[in-house]
Amino acid sequence: MSPIEFWFDFSSGYAFLAAQRIEAVAAELGRSVLWRPYMLGTAFSVTGARGLSSTPLKCDYAQRDWARIARHQGLTFRPPADHPRVALAATRAFYWIEARRPDLAAAFAQRVFALYFTDRLDTASPEAVSRLVPEFGLEPEALLAGIAEPALKEKVRKIGEDAVARGIFGSPFFLVDEEPFWGWDRMEMMAEWVRTGGW
After folding, report:
1. Does position 133 have pLDDT exceeding 90, yes or no?
2. Residues in domain DSBA-like thioredoxin (predicted)?
């Protein structure tokens, strides 16, 4: 069976919440998860939308909602004061790791989420992101060189553009058997769709 594609921007509060549950949801459904970070700005350039944290009224509500959900689920949630940060360095690092050690990619993504939303990791800083990789048995210097390579930069850009071309425009965004589900609050519907074969 095809995996659940989990598309997200590392700076998305709702994606952080989804990342806490997606592996368990997929396991219950007998599916794997294909973690797919991308730059949400790529979608915004097509849709004309703005991020929640840049939108009046929605910004205040989202911050309240994230904190409320985190309390309900027993999660620590402390985004940086300058949230959202452009997570390009973390996104490039993910794909660099995936190309070399695909077995580590999901754990790396989870670690980035955890540190950004609880420990104020600067996901925009290559140096800050590189300091995470020794715990995965990788060399910071190798990662820094890798994510600076034009081929890797082009790969990440193309992944985002291809995602938008497939109709992916938000974070989190799920595709399962080519059926799209947008948002953390669609995870239960997605699971029911898979269990029942859709409707």
Report:
1. yes
2. 4-192
User: What's the rounded Cα separation, in Å, for the pair 138 and 186?
Assistant: 35
Residues 108 and 119: their CA atoms lie apart, in Å, by 15
Encoded amino acid at 85, one letter: R
d(CA 187, CA 179): 12
What three-state secondary structure class fits 136? Answer: helix
The DSSP bridge partners found for residue 35 are 6
Range of the domain at 79: 4-196
Instruction: Identify the pLDDT of residue 53.
Output: 83
CATH number reported for the structural domain that contains residue 42 in this entry: 3.40.30.10
- For residue range 39-90, list pLDDT tens digits in order: 999 999 899 888 888 889 999 999 999 999 999 999 999 999 889 999 999 9
CA nearest neighbour of 152 among 84, 88, 107 = 88
Cα–Cα distance measured from residue 58 to residue 134, given in angstroms and rounded to the nearest whole number: 38
Q: Are 44 and 51 in contact (CB under 8 A)?
A: yes
Domain count, the chain: 1
The closest alpha carbon to 83, from 113, 48, 46, belongs to 113
Q: Are 169 and 160 in contact (CB under 8 A)?
A: no
pLDDT single digits (tens) 134-169: 999 999 999 999 999 999 999 999 999 999 999 999
